[in-house]
Amino acid sequence: MTDAPLSPVREARALKRFKRAWDSDFAYSFRRSPIAVISFFVVVVLVLSAVFAPLIAPHDPFNPATLNLMNGFTAPMEPNAFTGEVFLMGTDDQGRDVFSTILFGMRISLFVGFSAVLLAMVIGVTLGLLAAYIGGWTETIIMRTADVQLTFPAILVAMLIFGIAKGITPPEYRDQMAIWVLILAIGLSDWVQFARVVRGATLVEKNKEYVQAARLIGRSRGAIMLRHILPNVLNPVLVIATISLALAIIAEATLSFLGVGAPPTRPSLGTLIRIGQEFMFSGEWWILFFPAITLLALALSINLLGDWLRDALNPRLR
């Protein structure tokens, strides 16, 4: 009974907060950018399609009991010559519905991409803060390690880490651990950009008055870095994370295409592209075309969102 008179007040406050957010410079910049709106819409549709793949997919492509080899190599929107079934995007050599395999494959690609970027962000932000705030030999070791890693292509670093991690994994657990090893490989190959950007931003922030005041009142180094400096260096980190997500998805697809990524039992978009390219010149173009277009749309949309976010969060462009 006491909450009833307050509900209109709460609704008014919620409406006021929504209006304030809607009228903010960030939201205004988003509404004024057709590319950002379209990219956001594409990303949302693809991510939701992957998340709800078990509900959306018309078939379970990885359940052998539901597969029919007679449906193999069925062209899109054409009835199969033997069973008469029609598939939106056709079927592959095993009779699996390509549309369903794409939905389930995106789940693996997005999971690996998000997890790898999160791992790279945690490592890079932590090392960047430590390097800039502590300095000395700590900074020298961290940044020289980053410089050495930058001399090698990221995909080669990921392949090296993947090979080492998979080599020390017991053979009976390799298929189960392949996805986690893939996340580790991509994450460890992508932390350098986060570390370099956070180090540069921290070098600027640590000499400002609010940090000096925190030192005077006896705050510890960890508290100053986490509670004072970190919130003020997150803007460029978010931009890098958005762009790195697209690169991580492409890296996962590249590794899987080369046969050193996701296992055949849990194929990603890269694995589907590798399977499709085997039939590219035999007339079954759809097995390669649709997974490749999905990967292109996903990576391009995320990249365009990252470009807009970089401009929206840049105070010099406001």
Give an overview of the whole structure.
With 318 residues, the chain is mainly alpha-helical. It folds into two domains: 30 residues; 219 residues, MetI-like (MetI-like fold), CATH 1.10.3720.10. It contains 14 helices and no strands. Helix 6 runs antiparallel to helix 9. The longest helix has 37 residues. The protein is globular, with a radius of gyration of 24 Å. The two termini are 48 Å apart.
Entry keywords:
mainly alpha, MetI-like fold, 14 helices, 69% helix, globular
Distance between the termini: 48 Å
The total tally of domains equals: 2
Poorly predicted ranges (pLDDT <50, ≥5 residues)? 1-6
Q: Count all strands and give the number.
A: 0
Question: Which CATH architecture of the largest domain is right?
Answer: Orthogonal Bundle
